[in-house]
Amino acid sequence: MQASPKITKISVTRFEHELENVGKDYNTFNMVYESGSKLKQGGAILQIHTDQGIVGEYPANGSGLLDVQQVADYLIGKDALARESIYNDTKRGLRHGAMLGVGLVDICLWDIAGKLYDEPLYRLLGGEKKPLPAYASTLHGDENGGLNTPQDFADFAEQCYEMGYRSFKVHGWGLARSNIRREVDNVLLLGRQFEGRMDLLIDPACEVKNFGDALKLGRACDEAGFFWWEDPYQDGGVSQFAHRKLRQMVKTPMLQTEHIRLLEQHVDFIVADGTDYVRAGAHEDGGVTGALKIAHASEGFGLDVELHGPGPVHRHIMSSIRNTNFFELGLVHPKVKTTKPPVYLGYNDDLDGIDSEGNVYAPDGPGIGVPLDWDWIRAHQVDEGVLAEA
Q1: pTM for this entry
Q2: What is the average pLDDT across 243-267?
Q3: Less CB within 10 Å around the terminal CB: N or C of the chain?
């Protein structure tokens, strides 16, 4: 019997890059179109090394890496295939924070397993290669001549439809808190123009100022026949009571739970009748292990789970579960080529990343299944270091 690989080192490579024609909106949190602008972004690659030479690696963010740094010493010497016990130990160890590091570690461990057994993740998860319907998930509305009117969104949705998309999601304007009328007009125009042609979705990203404005937007979604709406107002997306109240007054199905973490909080939200669709993400909710726990728990309640954001890992998970609808392909814009660092070779999560029928597919390589472009990463590298080593 082959010995399990043991973890010997945790390392991080940091890089910087620029996004073209991308800026920030009034509150500096939302990316928006801005002609000629170059938005500097930082990124990193987390690597978990083993004594068998197999390396699990995954793009990581700053806050998640801070979590990994706290558990790095714990990981040294551990069986890299013991994902369940490592999930539970890191979950406990990081319980005072956001626990984002649980997911980063778990994804790298699944990458190791796939490389060890020479299989893509969807095979290890019991899935199969199948078309995954994608929705075009937009950048936020802007005031810069990009997506700054409802007609701009409608024109972009038409472009997406002609490309093959059959579902389209609006991220509206950050100033929705003071101009709910523009959000409502956007919803109603899209409903009229795409009735029977596209599934329409909206995500105000917790920027609608109060219950009354959220109710106006929800009732517009009812009139326009939207497939779902999510995270309407400024509770931060976490109030079970508030979203249950909205569900009682709005017919459009609600998608919540992007801003809570891990299995238990998701189940609590479901039991409290705070959502219709369940949002989960490998990056935020404990990796592949955590996202699957949420997906199967949701299945037990008869609910669908929708994965937050693009990436090859989510393609693998979608290919391995029944109760899901769409792959989120974003963030996209008619005048922006990409909003992501090009760290992968032969992989595309940009606007033109679909086939002619609006589908994407899980990659077939071992593990995560897509090689990292180390030439690009090294060319943009600003730092590298070891978090822990045997």
Answers
A1: 0.97
A2: 98
A3: N
